[in-house]
Amino acid sequence: MERLELQLYDYNEWANGQIFNRLKELPKDVYGKEIQSVFSSISRVLAHVYLSDLGWIEVFSGKNMEHALTLQEQLKGEMESKGLEEMEAKFLKLSERYKLFFNQLEGLDKSLKIENPNGDIMETSVFEQVPHVVNHGTYHRGNITAMLRQMGYASVPTDYGLYLYLKQSGAIVE
């Protein structure tokens, strides 16, 4: 049986793909359209999720939180200006990096000491943080769904239960 953390990450990758596929079906201007919402555009939501995921894989790989936050700040403008297809390619490449890391024997069980910006240290493991990465993505896919509805478009289902059903039925092949 596959570890739950790996299955959750696979779900996260699938759900992101669902969102990208839906966005590619819509008029091109929807992706970068400025609106009054939680984020000012869908492109900014996806840049935020990407940078957060990038920060976590950096931490998982042994970098400190300060490094991750600095990297995120350095790349923010660049990521927010990426087109839809470029951003999708960045997500796919980052997913490959996660999977390579997870395939290392000790990848998921690796312990982490995370120093938060306030100086507190949290002792955790990659195993405990993968659900956080996935939950963060799920939360922001919900933002995208709300933003699409606000612009007059339907979103696409990305529920974990649907993912499990489609996987069990053979509609999703890994």
UniProtKB/TrEMBL annotation:
Signal peptide: none annotated. It holds the Pfam family DinB. Coiled coil: none annotated. Keywords: Metal-binding. InterPro entries: DinB (IPR007837), DinB/YfiT-like (IPR034660). Belongs to the DinB family. This is DinB family protein. The lineage of its organism: Bacteria, Bacillati, Bacillota, Bacilli, Bacillales.
